[in-house]
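Researcher: Next sequence.
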Amino acid sequence: MTLNRIEPGLPPTAMQTFAVAAPLTSGRHWRKASCREVDCHHWREGWATVFDETNDTGRGRAQYVRNVSGRRFRESRTEAGLTRFDFSPGQTCFASGDHTIRNEDAPPIYLSRGGDWRTDRDVRPTVHSGPDPWLDQLHTNLERVVTRLENTRE
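Model: Next structure:
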């Protein structure tokens, strides 16, 4: 994906970046979730999976579906001779272990740092103790920007 950004008229050192984060890697901001909780497309509408049973991988996966998965399905053959499993809605999909949802009990992390997107990403941000100190710094910065703009118009 290519980002199109307007080149700022000020250097990165004149910028300040504010963020509210819930990092996926923190271990407390996200939790495993069911298909129902995330309104999984497969859970909601059903899905189809096709395997080529002429090789070991396809045979193994098809046997897993038939004998281990515990899911309801209709089995058929495609015109190309592949095995197709159609799964009805309302059952856990095969990616369910990857579903996550925001853990609302874990408060977000409030961050600020000097610079903008052009600044070295390794610059350590300031981690605020909560929303109030973060908002105080954000408003102070905004007031500075507004004052500078007003002074340049005079």
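Model: The chain has a mean pLDDT of 90. The two ends are 42 Å apart (CA to CA).
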